[in-house]
Amino acid sequence: MFRSVRHMIYDLIEWRSQILSGTLPQDELKELKKKVTAKIDYGNRILDLDLVVRDEDGNILDPEQTSTISLFRAHEIASKQVEERLQEEKSQKQNIDINRQAKFAATPSFALFVNLKNVVCKIGEDAEVLMSLYDPLESKFISENYLVRWSSCGLPKDIDRLHNLRAVFTDLGSKDLKREKISFVCQIVRVGRMELRDNNTRKLTSGLRRPFGVAGNSVC
Fold first, then answer.
1. Which domain range does residue 145 map to?
2. 171-198 burial, b for 16+ CB within 10 Å, e for fewer?
3. For residue 206, is it within any domain?
4. Which of 6, 115, 131, 205 is 20 to 30 A from 147 in CA distance terms?
5. What string of pLDDT tens digits covers the 220 residues of the chain?
6. Which residues contact 181 (CB under 8 A, 6 or more apart)?
7. pLDDT at residue 94, rounded to an integer
8. How many of the other CB atoms lie within 10 Å of CB of 169?
9. pLDDT value, residue 131
10. Considering 74, 99, 124, which residue would you say is the last residue of a domain?
11. Which positions fall inside the Dedicator of cytokinesis N-terminal domain (predicted)?
């Protein structure tokens, strides 16, 4: 309400300056006065103030010199004009809301930001950390994996990315908002020997991917 009234006051100040400048032609001056009176009547209506009855030129009617019937008819006309303006404003607002909803439904509506600080898990070998979003009701993943390769030393294999392991899941649209539940799942895949306890050099293997652990947390 404050913003609406402030905007109207700014308009009235600007129009008053144009009227006082004395540079407007008679027809433009007449139209501008009508805009001013219409804006004042509209502002009084939304502020629940009294409606000022005016003639066709926008001048306030004098009740001492105007008949009761004329005042009543002028009041009806003014009320009708203000109500039409209110309906027009309401219709415009509804159209704006509809357009916003359509845009909201047609484009991704939100994103999930992930910042990986550390992997506190005793693995003993190199590993791959995969993070993704999962729908537990449909039993399926709804996003791509964010992959971080972790070394056996407890640090990212790409040391330049230390303290900078960030990802944003942006493929979340209106369909995902309607899901009853979304979980954030982290999978750890061990990369190395078939068996951690395999000390026999003749059977020693490397580079094999084996599931090691998984964790999940509800997002919504």
1. 110-190
2. ebeeebeebeebbbbbbbbbbbbeeeee
3. no
4. 205
5. 888 888 888 888 988 888 888 888 888 888 888 888 888 888 888 888 887 777 776 777 777 887 888 888 887 887 887 888 778 777 777 777 777 666 655 555 678 888 888 888 888 888 999 999 888 888 888 888 899 988 888 888 888 777 888 888 876 766 777 778 888 999 999 988 777 666 665 566 677 888 888 888 887 6
6. 135, 136, 137, 218, 220
7. 76
8. 22
9. 92
10. 99
11. 2-205
Contact between residue 187 and residue 135 where contact means Cβ atoms under 8 Å apart: no
Residue 216 located in a structural domain: no
Query: What's the sign of the alpha-carbon dihedral 72, 75, 77, 80?
Result: negative
Please tell me whether residues 183 and 148 are part of one structural domain.
yes
How many residues appear in the chain? 220
**Neighbour-count burial of 27, counting CB atoms closer than 10 A to its CB (0-12 exposed, 13-18 middle, 19+ buried):** exposed
- From CA 100, how far away is CA 76, in angstroms rounded? 36
Which pLDDT does position 109 carry in this prediction? 63
Identify residue 173 by its one-letter amino acid code: G
**Residue 60 is encoded by which pair of tokens?**
């306030």
The answer on 52 and 76 residing in a single domain is yes
Residue in 142, 121, 149, 133 with CA at minimum distance from that of residue 183:
133
114 in the same domain as 92? no
Please report whether residue 196 resides in a domain.
no
